[in-house]
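Contributing new complexes? Match this layout with 2'-deoxycytidine-5'-monophosphate.
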Amino acid sequence: MIIAVDGPTASGKGTISKALAAHYGLPHLDTGLLYRAVGWQCAVIGGDPDDPTTALAATSFPDDLLLEERLRTEATGGLASRVSVHPAVRQALYDRQRAFALQPGGAVLDGRDIGTVIAPEAAPKLFVTASVEARAQRRWHEMHARGEAPTLAEIEDDLRRRDERDRNRTAAPLMPAPDAYVLDTSMLDRAAAISAAIAVVDGTAG
Ligand code: DC
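Output block (do not edit by hand):
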């Protein structure tokens, strides 16, 4: 079984994907991490993430970069969103994601284009979403726990900018696949969101 989980930043898709992987005993790939590694590598080589040639060169990052905690910061997320608009970058990361999806026994992948581009044959597909306000609240709590101190308004602005870029790019824009189940987690806590996702996978969701 290939489970595709797409959705915007801080929608809860990462938490849901990890929980689904544990529940069904499947391997999990956070594909956003690959784009974050490219964004990070761009900064390391002193390149411009908006330049397609530089961003493409940054796709040959060392594998152990994926373990780097700093990939998870908001700043790296912003770089990832910028490099991800380039079709050549998306193409360079395609084979790795596709091979992960096709491994025997199945897999859970989360990202922006899993159900539309990487594994259109995936079933089930979830599109996890939440209001900007709910997502900003969650991000605020995570960031303050890490000792970062942005205001709620700054986080909302950043989320809106990232959503806008991810939704309006020409290459594989963020959008639900026609056969995706849209799960809005705005009013759900972590446990309720995970139960709802399991119900979708089990085919018992309303
Ligand atoms: O899920 P995330 O916040 O780690 O993703 C960071 C950026 O990477 C996101 O703004 C857009 C890009 N991305 C993408 O274009 N396609 C994916 N499958 C995953 C992430």
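Reviewers usually confirm one structural detail per submission. For this one: The CA atoms of residues 73 and 143 lie 9 Å apart.
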